[in-house]
Amino acid sequence: MAEELEHEPQPQEPRTELPEEGAAPADGAEPEKKEKKPSEDLFYWLNALTTALVSLVLVFTFIGRLTRVQGESMTNTLQDQQLLLVWSLGYEPKQGDIVVLNKTTVEHLGGVAIVKRVIATGGQTVDIDYDAGTVAVDGQVLDEPYILEEMLWPSSSHMQETHFEVPEDSIFVMGDNRNGSTDSRHEWLGAIDEDYILGQAVAVLWPLGRIGLL
User: Is 181 a catalytic residue?
Assistant: First the structure.
């Protein structure tokens, strides 16, 4: 019988199969992640910061802003140094609103923005009776529970007028602390052109104990 010949197995070339895209390696190791360059992180944060700054500028220019009360002219409704949220977008002044006025209207007060209450708007008349302690708009005496105390005759020679006619597109403003407020009664200030209104004070944001809507 013929002797069977043994065949030695031929060496095989190792297979180099590529894993499918997204599949984990066979040994269970995590796929190698692409490392971010420092320049990419820097660009991301600069872009985010720029977007945030532009958004803040737009908000405080066209929608609202923050302002701080300076002085006692709006006591007891507002206190000195309180932080207010002021709404600007689409605002049209109405009687009774608390408004913030641009500092260019009050250079004789030190060039700071002022906070006052709207008493009358364009085309209306204002009559002040210091003896009775009343303010009348178009002949109608106002109910003013917000004033601090009974209104007295001003000591300033520049605040002796008692009848006022408010020009169109202007407002007549007074402080709630009538005996400690320089406002539209003062001949240097008078009625305020609406262009100088920064917006309506809508809320107190600080201090925490006084937070709330106005």
Answer: no
